[in-house]
Amino acid sequence: MQIYWTKINRIIDETPEVKTYMLDLPEGFTWEEGSHTHLGLKGFNAGDKPNKSLVRHMSISTLPHEESLGITTRIREQCSEYKSILRNLKAGDEVALFKTYSNVPLKRENKNVYLLSSGVGLATFRPLVLEYLERADNVSRIHSLNIDSTKDFLFTDVFESAPDKKFTAQFVDRRENYYEEVKKLAADQDGLFYIVGSDEFLSQNIDVLRAQGIQQEQIMLDKREKGRTAFFPDQLSV
């Protein structure tokens, strides 16, 4: 396993609870849209075995051409030891990156793509939208639907509807409104539905989509094959 140590070059306060840590690009480190990485804090590999409490699975919220690797995360006042350490880091501090992979790259199958997310889960979709806006080949259109009860919606500079580019962005702050919109989107029986959020959020969205006739192979999760089986136990994982 290759570990890339790199430095924080700046920290962006996206909202009162959400920060983006912009990291220097390590030499040889590559990724694609929809990627996640493991973010290790100092000391995570100091002993005989990795200290898992100092490692988290994080989505990458930027694309390589932006020349900085972004990690966007919510840090509440009451938080884990990991988030507490992360909150106190400053520009110049080092972090580690390893085990980078994309479960949700943008599929180019001449279909409509629907991005369903909760809160900071939108960070996973930011690179997909940027990739689409730069090159829309073989994607009919994209619609993003995000729910955030805080009403502090993220990345509104990117998630801004652009009808000429066949991209629409929708934000809601109430759960009942969100799922009503999901049902409407599921009227497109040929669409591709990407979901990012907590496991509970994934399960609820899958239940709504399946009830509307959307098939398992149309639903994309930020999970490896083994992880998908927990959400589709009655079928073979795609």
What tags apply to this protein structure?
238 residues, alpha/beta, Elongation Factor Tu (Ef-tu), domain 3, 6-stranded antiparallel β-sheet, 11 strands, FNR_nucleotide-bd
Describe this structure in words.
- This protein has helices at residues 81-87, 122-134, 175-185, 199-211, 225-228; strands at 4-13, 18-23, 35-40, 55-59, 69-74, 94-102, 111-118, 139-147, 167-172, 192-196, 219-221.
- It is globular, with a radius of gyration of 18 Å.
- With 238 residues, the chain is of the alpha/beta class.
- The protein has a 6-stranded antiparallel β-sheet, with no helix packed on it. The chain has a 5-stranded parallel β-sheet with strand order 9-8-7-10-11, with helices on both faces.
- It is 20% helix and 31% strand.
- A hairpin with a 4-residue loop joins β1 and β2 (18-23).
- The chain is built from 5 helices and 11 strands.
- The chain has 2 domains: 4-102, Translation factors (Elongation Factor Tu (Ef-tu), domain 3); 111-228, Nucleotide-binding domain of ferredoxin-NADP reductase (FNR) module (Rossmann fold, 3-Layer(aba) Sandwich).
- Residues 1-107 form the FAD-binding FR-type domain.
- It comes from Bhargavaea changchunensis.
- InterPro entries: FAD-bd_FR_type (IPR017927), FNR_nucleotide-bd (IPR039261), Riboflavin_synthase-like_b-brl (IPR017938).
